[in-house]
Amino acid sequence: MKKVQFTLLFLLFALSVSAQEATTKKAEIGFNMNGKIGFGKLIQNGMVDLNGSVNSGDILFFYRLPSGTTLSTGVGLLDFNTNGVTSGESYALKQSYLRIPINLNYSMFILENQLDSKLSAYGGIGVYANTLLKEEIQTIDETFKNKNQGWNAGLGFNVGLRFGVTKDINFGLGFESQSDITKMKKNGVERKLEEINTVNFSFEFKF
């Protein structure tokens, strides 16, 4: 019990110190553009699970409190590409998704005095709405195309480092893990993307 009380007192002290430091800083607003590369898994009824490559990017507007808490939202595109075999015939699958994310992050400076508040670490959680804009299945003989294949939702976590190049421009490098938490259902087909793990490269501009 004493350990719990000590931990709570320490957390309250840390929060009070952060609040006092925050009074000397100002809130920030701006936008963040990021590119992502990695891998994911497609799960769909009537098919074996398919592992493939992921290429993605977001344009997000953010509002950052003096405490380092950041709320951001915008739009993103994600491409999933893979190859498979069905009924003895090889095929290539390409899917393009539109995403609407809402993220909540927290950041803190690392070696603030030594690096003049240029390096910070961040981490957070996000949710997203997701729709499959188009799907292309290519075999040796023909190509099948589908559009607007429904909506679903997902959850993600991210961590990384952000480096300030100038007062208003930051570059970042991070890691993100996402997974659809509901299935996309249309025309009897149920699908979702799981285990989406990407390396993220970001450019941030503050107004």
The portion of residues assigned to helices is 10-25%
Structural class estimated from helices and strands: mainly beta
Number of strands: 10
State the distance separating the first and last CA atoms.
Answer: 47 Å
Helical run tally: 1
The Cα radius of gyration reads 21 Å
**Mean pLDDT across every amino acid position:** 89
The profile of the biggest β sheet is:
8 strands, antiparallel, barrel
Q: What's the overall geometry?
A: elongated
Strand content: over 45%
Q: What's the arrangement of strands in the largest beta sheet?
A: 1-2-3-4-5-7-8-10
How are helices and strands ordered from N to C? HEEEEEEEEEE
Kindly describe this structure.
This protein is mainly beta and 207 residues long. It contains one helix and ten strands, in the order αββββββββββ. The chain has one helix at 2-22; strands spanning 28-44, 50-64, 69-86, 89-109, 119-138, 143-147, 151-164, 169-180, 184-186, 189-206. Strands 1-2-3-4-5-7-8-10 form an eight-stranded antiparallel beta barrel. The longest helix has 21 residues, at 2-22. It starts with a helix and ends with a strand.
Observed structural traits:
69% strand; mainly beta; 1 helix; 207 residues; disordered N terminus; single chain
Strands, helices and their partners?
Layout: H1 2-22, E1 28-44, E2 50-64, E3 69-86, E4 89-109, E5 119-138, E6 143-147, E7 151-164, E8 169-180, E9 184-186, E10 189-206
Antiparallel strand pairs: 1-2, 1-10, 2-3, 3-4, 4-5, 5-6, 5-7, 7-8, 8-10, 9-10
